[in-house]
């Protein structure tokens, strides 16, 4: 029996269109999808997307794809689906890594990403380090050495978004209009990482979140942002194709209790599933 896990994200620090590429920087949190595979009878009907990953992994390593029929798979995931929290990326990455170990083959995160992106758009949480990634075609990847020195309060909106369908929307002519704004947002995020300046980084992620209001509107975003900075958060980020908003903060500075008390008075909590604090961790799938 082989077990592998991969973390979720709480949206993206940046997502936009630059130089003809759709790019994002998602960040991993301590919420996981766990995949178990072993020899047995295929249950593809329960996990069609994961079995697609198994078939592609078999093909990648030169095996007969029909071997999937002899592989039993189970997914135990705490990641909400359809919220823009990289649930599918986590499922696929963990499945591909577990399959490679089952076959006694070696694979790295870039190879895992190349297989996953054949199936659907892929979050950069598939890499261990923070990464700027072409999430639609995988044609560009830039890794950052610096870590995020902060925590996140994830506000999860009700409802779901079909990320695959959303990313198929033809927004090219709209997004190209905002390329200068995207460049400014990315520049702030990158400078913040390079200089370990979380205020600058969050300024960039906040800008990216508000640019995305043109494509996927979040009703309470401005109120949430204003209250977050009132209580000394660095800023916000969002899932650009989902329902979550992240409050980025230093636990020594942010008054979380006052924020949580007051936010009930400015937004309708019937529109939200939950508010949960997460740690930001190393990305990528791993065996355990």
UniProtKB/TrEMBL annotation:
InterPro entries: GHMP_kinase_N_dom (IPR006204), PduX (IPR012363), Ribosomal_Su5_D2-typ_SF (IPR020568), Ribsml_uS5_D2-typ_fold_subgr (IPR014721)
Domain GHMP kinase N-terminal: 52-120
One of the record's GO molecular function terms: ATP binding
Record's keyword terms, sorted: ATP-binding, Kinase, Nucleotide-binding, Transferase
PANTHER family recorded: 4-DIPHOSPHOCYTIDYL-2-C-METHYL-D-ERYTHRITOL KINASE, CHLOROPLASTIC (PTHR43527), L-THREONINE KINASE (PTHR43527:SF1)
Protein name: GHMP kinase N-terminal domain-containing protein
Native source species: Senegalia massiliensis
């Amino acid at each position: 029996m082989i077990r592998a896990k991969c973390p979720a994200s709480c949206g993206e620090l940046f997502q936009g269109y630059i130089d003809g590429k759709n790019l994002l920087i998602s960040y991993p949190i301590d919420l996981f999808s766990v995949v178990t595979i072993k020899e047995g009878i295929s249950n593809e009907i329960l996990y069609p997307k994961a079995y697609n990953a198994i078939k592609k992994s078999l093909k990648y390593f030169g095996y007969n794809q029909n071997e999937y029929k002899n592989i039993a798979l189970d997914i135990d995931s705490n990641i909400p689906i359809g919220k823009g929290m990289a649930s599918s990326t986590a499922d696929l990455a963990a499945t591909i890594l577990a399959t490679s170990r089952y076959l006694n083959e070696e694979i790295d995160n870039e190879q895992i990403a190349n297989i996953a992106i054949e199936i659907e758009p892929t979050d950069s949480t598939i890499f261990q380090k923070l990464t700027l990634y072409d999430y639609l075609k995988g044609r560009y990847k830039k890794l950052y050495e610096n870590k995020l020195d902060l925590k996140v309060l994830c506000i999860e909106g009700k409802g779901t978004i079909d990320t695959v369908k959303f990313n198929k929307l033809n927004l090219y002519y709209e997004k190209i209009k905002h390329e200068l704004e995207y460049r400014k947002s990315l520049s702030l995020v990158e400078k913040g990482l390079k200089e370990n300046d979380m205020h600058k980084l969050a300024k960039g992620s906040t800008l990216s979140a508000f640019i995305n209001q043109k494509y996927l509107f979040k009703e309470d975003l401005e109120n949430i942002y204003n209250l977050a900075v009132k209580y000394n958060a660095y800023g916000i980020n969002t899932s650009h194709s989902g329902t979550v908003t992240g409050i980025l903060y230093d636990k020594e500075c942010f008054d979380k209790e006052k924020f949580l008390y007051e936010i009930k008075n400015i937004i309708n909590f019937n529109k939200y599933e939950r508010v949960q604090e997460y740690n930001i961790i190393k990305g990528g799938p791993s065996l355990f």
